[in-house]
Protein 1
Amino acid sequence: MLCCKFYVASLRNVHTYINVEEVERENNKDYNQVLLDVQRSLRRFPPGMPDEQREGLQEELIDIILRVLGRNTQLHYYQGYHDIVVTFLLVLGERLATALVEKLSTHHLRDFMDPTMDNTKHILNYLMPIIERVNPEVHDFMQQAEVGTIFALSWLITWFGHVLSDFRHVVRLYDFFLACHPLMPIYFAAVIVQYREDEVLDCECDMASVHHLLSQIPQDLPYETLISRAGDLFVQFPPSELAREAAQQYSQQMAASTFKDFDLTPEQQRPDTVLRRRRREKQALKGAAAGAMVATAQPTTARRFVRLAVMGLTVALGAAALTLVNTALEWAPKLDLHLFP
């Protein structure tokens, strides 16, 4: 994993190794669910791995998850989180995987780890507007079938780790997502649907048939081509262009400020900034100013153009990842992860 190597090098340079402290399991509220999920994760380990080695890695997997959650009490475990963590464990080992997973959990994965799935559903709402721009015929067919977007839920929250059987493809996608905007998995999902256009249009136009087809992801996808296409789509149709449409068409009850968070993510990717803003908004709602929103400045056109261009250059993922890591490390000393009681 190219991008993982950049992360690892940067973590070493600033001496940010996480101490692998002992984890209290018995009284941990997430332990039983984590244990069940990890026990069901046998296929995520290399075929032919000795049972003793796999069982040892499963114990480390449980510890990483509980350790990250224990250090960040504002985060909530969700089923599928272990699919992401095990990928980094197999590539990096327990110590470095803990450091990287903790950083990602307060950044790229942050919205999946809220107490409810509202923000996760909100992210899924970007899928159909992208498909509509890329292939209106497929979009209209899916709308008529009323299939919705739930077929892509496991793709999104596991970064496709749960649905792909070849570990090489999983780590290639993780490289891509590490280097890009947190919404890139949705663009990749849209590209997969577009790639399967003929299959979709040949399917019976009903929810059950279309959902069954789309939820069974092919294992022989042309990944490099699809990755390049997803990067191109991000440049053509950035989240800022899709946000209002996604809000109006699929999430009428969502606050507009939620979408600003995504629009500003590349420029304002500090987890503490997002958390502080959410806390201020909650406090404002409790007071007399229930309708007030925290004002956020929009990035200039020039800066947005540069940002999108960088995200679109998938052939330069290493450089993009290094930039993201260096920026994140600059924020690291400023993080305050104890913002909520």
Protein 2
Amino acid sequence: MCWLWCEHCCFPFPGLGSEPADPAAIQEPVLVAKVLEVDNRTVTTHFILLGFPTQPALQLLLFSIFLSIYLLTLLENLLIILAIRSDGHLHKPMYFFLSHLSFLEMWYVTVISPKMLADFLSYDKSISFNGCMTQLYFFVTFVCTEYILLAVMAFDRYVAICNPLRYPVIMTNQLCSALAGGCWFCGLMTAMIKMVFIARLRYCGTPQINHYFCDISPLLNVSCEDSSQAELVDFFLALMVIAVPLCVVVTSYATILTTIFRIPSAQGRRKAFSTCASHLTVVILFYSTTLFTYARPKLMYAYNSNKVVSVLYTVIVPLLNPIIYCLRNREVKAALKKTILCKRSGPLEDETLNS
């Protein structure tokens, strides 16, 4: 008798003189099928990122534009970090936090841009499940860290303008290091908690994500099971990471503006406001482009404008931030000139410092 088996069953076929196969070997295909199929739904191993569906010629144009922006963003932030580290005049808390912001944004754009650029040139726009979750984890880490870091920078400006005499005593190197480390720690922990709930959701087949990177909104929407618990956790954490830093920023700048208006001379008011104008501009750009997206992520995915808004805070804002700080800050401009000119000494350096 010969034992014939299919993917889900085995049965004897009379009339043939063979012995039955090894039971363990018979059951192996059945076990494999059970691992790969749960409730008639295939386990997801890949996602498809739809990105920007356009004509091939336009894809090449977009590739060139976004590649130029990506490289320029890396160059700008790298120059700011080098300028702050090399110029002793910039060894202050304000520029210490600025160097952390530049370092953060270099990795912030690197998490998104390389995959997006590769998809412009490839017909295969798939991303593995593990790759998608890794991209999401680091992206959420950097976003949350930037929210908190901008609040810390607002607090630094508050102490500098409202308590100038006590500023060196309050903003010590130890406190600055602890605040910067706390920003990174909170970002990492927040992303880890979010990932625990998002990664365990069930995704059926090979879902198509109408986005150019793995974000919270599309993943919640393509899940084939109830994601209300993950959405609730994400909303609560977003409330903590966005609302609390935003309250710190608003309170700090409300006090700063009150203090500036009390300064008797117009020149004193302009000088005081110029020290925080760059940071305030960066805060407005970043918070305005991300606030509504991450306050209700699943709802925002329903709008086609979601990708356009995402381009603003993943591509445009990191490009503009270094430019804003350079245009509004003479010390940074002078340090950048020294860095680009490789610290030439003599009349040229004196001329640079006086510009």
Protein 3
Amino acid sequence: MKRARPSPLPALGLLLLGALPALWTVLLRREAAAEAEAPEPRDWGRSPEARGEPGGGRQKTFRALLAAGPEERAEPAAGSPVERGIFWSRELEEQVPRGFAAEEAAAWLSAARTARVSSLERGGCGRSSNRLARLSDGSRACVRYGINPEQIQGEALSYHLAGVLGMQERLPPMALALVEARGRRWEPVREELRGSPWAEGAVVSLTRWVDNLTAVVAPAPWGSEASAGRRLQPLSAGELGGLPRSQLVELVQWSDLILFDYLTANFDRLVSNLFSLQWDPRVMRRATSNLLRAPDGGLVFMDNEAGLVHGYRLLSMWDPYNEPLLRSVCVFREGTARRVAELHRRRSAAAELRRRYRAREPLWARLGFLSERQAELLQARVDFVHRHIAHCRAQAAVL
């Protein structure tokens, strides 16, 4: 069903840390003056304007902004959740649940790619065309059959982009599979396949089933304040310091989620809830779409079919929501920020994604990779995130 074009989100002043509106104009002027005096940073391709990047213009590299003097890089006070103004503390990051550890994910993927499908059940995996599969090794997996192949492609590419960004542990292990009713793998469920809408030769995704997941409601500043329609107030460092440790640990994961959804242009998570505010003022107090919590408290980024391909076709519709969400975050995992900075410096976002995708997904050629235009959009969005992080760093130095 075609959705109506959304109206601009009213007064979405989403800023997480140190984003005081009164300083915005002053900061922009200071940054512009500093950039005018700074030497041109090395570029690995066309200019930002020629590439059609959001914002355009020259920008200090994130690496240079990290090269602060001893007084700027002083360790935070004991118990502080933030280091150097914009990075979650190491102590706090160490308390984030490990999620799907790389070695465990690799073991499950290896077994799932060779296991036979013992049974297929309806329900529990979203869309009616999806199935819950029990595999011969005893594990279970959601088998997703997209409305069209680009959704399965988006799921696979989003999973591997998360690996490039160092946050793949937040996504359940995912592999592609080929539907072959006459093949040995699907032989036990041949009758079920005949009664399903799946086409012979179609590519589906197998995502590891996880027990005992629970719903997640967006925390402040994206939750109750947004649902009440008020202008969202920035969260100060003092307020962060007063939050319970469990809430801070969750915010660490939310900062990665919002950055990830911006890069992939995924509109089927928090963005869809924000869109629904125009007719449901309490939607932000309800569960966030495609986001669940594991028993250990870790967030699970589920069902990323809208990412990178489908989402890139609908940028004009959903970026009025995705971009303010990104701007609402000014505290990041340092590892995530460094990866973004490196992808920006090398201009290698699509190349790194392609390399990882081809090396780790045997069926990658069945769906192909991003088009040239989509690859350019991915790099442009990486560059936009890089500039936003640099802006947050400069802003924190002033405050």
Protein 4
Amino acid sequence: MAGGSSLRLFILGVSLLSFSFQCFCHCNVNRKGETRSVGIKGMFVFGSSLVDNGNNNFLQNSLARADYLPYGVDFPLGPSGRFTNGKNVLDLLGEQLKIPSFIPVFADPQTKGSKIVHGVNFASGASGILDDTGSLAGRVMSLNEQIRNFEEVTLPELKTQLGLGCSTSFESSIDKYLFVVGTGGNDYSFNYFLANPHNVSLQVFTANLTSSLSTKLKKLHSLGARKFVVMSINPLGCSPMAMNMMKLPTVTRNRCVQGMNRAVHLFNSRFKSMVDAIRAEMPGSALVFVNSYKIIRDIIKSPISKGFKDSSGTCCEVASISEGGNGILCKRGGQVCLNRSSHVFFDGLHPTEAVNVQIATKAFVSTLKTEVYPTNIQQMTQIQI
């Protein structure tokens, strides 16, 4: 009898322990959900220079770097690797979302431990959707490599940092992060229009590009991503780089290079039309398409009404190819315009902080489906997944 009582007590103890663990796991989910439901905890960022916070600073032999003045002339921390004079779109979205700090870059050896709790930036200047895009810029991290870095390095550490003991707890926590993807422009500028070794048509190239990006979004979804922000490609044909490449006379510079813009518009249109289909294939997800192409194009068409004066020139001094530059990046220590907020472009390709402010603001609160689709970021963050 004594042995039977001991056995029953042992089984009861195990049952209570099991119940306590299950309750802890369940309560942990609810507790985390309650404290974070009011907002977004952080962002994981993938893409190219428009959303790169400085990853290329840590890549040996990378030629696509912005870690020197006049880049960062208006940024609180000075030159950081951001390809603009001040804050980029990611920084400004972070402010809207009340994220407490700038998103650290993956390539920085110090980005580990508690520093990843509010997100990590994986973006790499000059990179693209395709693996071979960016090869002319030396060492860059392609979108595939960025996603691998998230999967193999950051994701396991994030689970540890969040102290998650069961998969449902992780799912409840990961939907409090935005997954921002801003890429594709370099696939046209430095791949299709510059090389195109296989001589494929624009339609075939674009179809392959949108399909590839869709596949990569689904990969992130399989890793737990639920809330996505996808940035369109900017109007590349209106950039000083494009107009200088085409050697347009001064009197026609405001007209933009229509061939490049048509290609980009084709990509943006196809991808926007795919948003609903992609979302249906990613259960429990929400996705916002930010049409930065239209936002910037509207500024260029009517700069004065938007608060700008110069919509075609560069704010910083850019070295041409004949001068040993690439026609895109600012000269190291070169001259810079005094009124940066009146310029659309800071260097030969990248917009000023003033333009980034307009993109981030519209992405967050615009009610126009031509600017954000199917809803804005503020509304999307309130969706319960």
